[in-house]
Amino acid sequence: MITLYTFGPAFGLPDASPFVTKAEMLLKLAGLPYHARRGSLRRAPKGKLPYLDDMGRIVADSTMIRWHIEKTYHIDFDAGLSPAERGIAWAAEKLMEDHLYWAVARVRWLDQANFDKGPAQFFRSVPAPVRGLAERLVRYKVRKTLWGQGLGRHSEDELVALASKGVTSIADILGDKRYLMGDQPCGADATLFAFAGSLLCPVFDTPIRTAAEGHANLVAYMARMRAEFYPELAAAPVPQGAAA
């Protein structure tokens, strides 16, 4: 049995991390039995979640997990796609993972109102006398990482413009198709579901969320995917206010 190490559900989403949700979606798409268990960053091989234990073989990082599934279980998530379509799907994944992810991270972690609604709850287990210090240290690291990545150097208006362009590009690729690349899901659908959920999460008030909500096809895609792969979440009330 495969064990997937996760953060756990949060904000009405399958997991607090879109990368964890992506990995879980890949397991669902592959039809592989698995058990989800809350993990520890301290024990994670690369200091991040997700990672999985497949009968003693440890695989860290959502993309490495995908490649492990494909190689070990002889699954081609992109079967039926042409070389050009495979390239588009891969480029869309990287747009979401290496660009939109950081834009969302900035508005969640560095905007005080959104921080209080979301990430602040991750510090509940920290003793009260040092909780504020822990929050400041982690937020400083996030700010420093964003500066190095590049998006942290832009003004808020510039950041929103860049992120909105990315969201529009994804919505344009999706078009009126049921899944990102056609009538059957491909590997990039695991990523799109995970990251579109993060973009559209109603807990957080951001102009990036507003931009995503402006694409009816993206909103409809999320509803379809929730109903198909996470019916328990589709039936649950969607949180609207503070999660903390």
From TrEMBL:
Segments forming domain Thioredoxin-like fold: 18-114
Ranges annotated as spanning the membrane: none
Metaxin glutathione S-transferase domain segment(s): 166-225
Domain of life: Bacteria
Pfam families reported in the protein's UniProt record: GST_C_6 (PF17171), GST_N_4 (PF17172)
Protein name: Glutathione S-transferase
Organism: Cupriavidus neocaledonicus
